[in-house]
Amino acid sequence: MPVTTEQVIAWIQRSAAVLRENREYLTQLDSPIGDADHGVNMDRGFTAVMDKLPGVADKDAGTILKTVGTTLVSTVGGASGPLYGTAFLRAGMALAGKVELQESDVLAALEAALEGIIARGKAKPGEKTMVDALQPAIETFKVSLGAGDPLKAALAKATESAEQGMKATIPMLATKGRASYLGERSIGHQDPGATSAWLFLRTMGG
Questions:
Q1: Which one, of 101, 45, 91, lies nearest residue 64 by Cα?
Q2: Do residues 128 and 101 touch, judged by C-beta distance below 8 A?
Q3: How confident is the model at residue 174 (pLDDT cuts 50, 70, 90)?
């Protein structure tokens, strides 16, 4: 069953709702190692995205995701705006003109999003960032699809990998972003960006 643009819109709406529900949690995670604003910033960004969605509801998946990306870049403060904005822009570019998505399209969009984050943030695995949740998740997703799993099952497995990657950031020493200024004191805290990345993937499965 291909993924429709209506389902893409529904995922963005679910993401906005989940980010609002977890606004305080994400901010608490950000408090000891960041600027204590990740939850607030993400909620603000997706509130703006929700205002823009009706105007692109009849567009292709690429246009929808690129609209999300440009909105996040212009409304979200800190590092998360440019990073997530780039992720959605790159995913949108990968899906340009598509109104129905196959499993391979979803994989291509996720891979493009991750490549965008890595390029923009100059981050690699093990540096206590959202990459630590996204990279293992996308790898799991790719393997699962290759084994013949249906999309929903592959997304569920990817979400489990993202959760493991998110939790694996707790003992890491941060070497990127605001948290890197803390040195050893960044150890013992879960990365808020990895947490919001996990939330995005969790909502993809419905």
A1: 91
A2: no
A3: confident
Distance (Å, rounded) from C-alpha 20 to C-alpha 24?
Answer: 8
0.90 cut: is pTM over it?
yes
Count of positions (residues) in the chain: 206
At residue 187, what is the residue type? I
- C-alpha radius of gyration, the chain, whole number: 16
Classify 2 as helix, strand or coil.
coil
Q: What average pLDDT does the chain have?
A: 94
Name the residue among 190, 138, 186 with its Cα closest to residue 168: 190
**pLDDT bracket for residue 6 (50, 70, 90):** very high
State what percent of residues in the chain have pLDDT above 90. Answer: 84
Distances (CA, A) of 4 to 18, 102, 151, 157: 21, 9, 13, 22
The amino acid occupying position 29 is L
| Tokens at 180, concatenated | 């890197």
Q: Is 99 exposed, middle or buried (0-12, 13-18, 19+ CB in 10 A)?
A: middle
C-alpha 179/C-alpha 183 separation (Å) is: 8
Q: Which tens digits make up the pLDDT trace of 101-131?
A: 999 999 999 999 999 999 999 989 999 999 9
Domains annotated for the chain, with CATH where assigned, are: 3-204 (1.25.40.340)
Exposed, middle or buried, 142 (CB in 10 Å: 0-12/13-18/19+)? middle
